[in-house]
Specification:
Length: about 130
Amino acid sequence: MLLTNTPIPTILDKDLVVYKVLYKLGSRIYSIYQDYRYDIGKIYYEEEIGIEPNYIMGEEMPDEYCVYEAYHACTTLDRANDHLGKVKKYRIYKCIIPKGSKVFFDRDCDDIASDTIIIKRRLWFNRW
């Protein structure tokens, strides 16, 4: 889930490099939260991004929306490293969100949710 301050997506005017934390099991790679399977080089497209107002204790928060159905990633390597934690099987993958994609940024622009993503390659380093 990503919290954003607008229900209207930004349309990218150029490709955007992002980073996604995934884990490998056998020859396949998966997301760390919902075990969604990915393949290197394949274009993944979500027909409709799921977004709704954010509620806290039953009250709608003004100018706060939850993006729950989309491809989530980090806009910086530092943020991706924050997601690694101390789980040694997690790895950072460089990804591309193509020009023309619909995206939402969190308030700090550290996290992003998009309708399209391409997993490009694993980055070969660990922070521990």
